[in-house]
Amino acid sequence: QVQFVESGGGLVQPGGSLRLSCVVPESMFTGYIIAWYRQAPGNGRDLVARVSTSGSTRYADSVKGRFTISRDNTKKTAYLQMNSLKPEDTARYYCNSLITPLSGVVGSWGQGTQVTVSS
């Protein structure tokens, strides 16, 4: 089973920054929307941001202006630059691929990467 491999999480103080990376299975990169999700303890998995094949992006209202999603078509990798982090950003972050913005994810979930924002 091919999986997504997320990395880059850690412990950061409020106001700090982190850059997450996601190596996407080659069969699920070209032609797919790539999205980042997050799941806090006791909550469901929520969409944070997505980037289309053309590079257009969409963000959850809670992260607009602070997070930037991007994709490197050569490296088959997606990134999530997170600035001005807040305690409420604390969660496990995952990536996955979608065929359309309204479709479900197409891949198996990876291990995710933990982001903890705390002083």
Q: What does the model show?
A:
The model has no long low-confidence stretch (mean pLDDT 95). The chain is 0% helix and 45% strand. The chain has strands at residues 5-7, 10-12, 18-23, 33-39, 45-51, 57-59, 67-72, 77-82, 91-98, 113-117. It is built from no helices and ten strands. The strands form two sheets. The protein has a six-stranded mixed beta sheet with strand order 2-10-9-4-5-6, with no helix packed on it. It has a four-stranded antiparallel beta sheet with strand order 1-3-8-7, with no helix packed on it. It has 119 residues and is mainly beta.
pLDDT < 50 stretches: none
Coarse shape: globular
Give me the strand/helix succession: EEEEEEEEEE
Which structural class should the secondary elements be placed in? Answer: mainly beta
Strand tally is 10
**How do the strands line up in the largest sheet?**
2-10-9-4-5-6
Name the beta content range: over 45%
Measured between the Cα atoms of the first and last residue, the distance is 38 Å
Count of DSSP H/I helices: 0
Mean pLDDT over the full residue set: 95
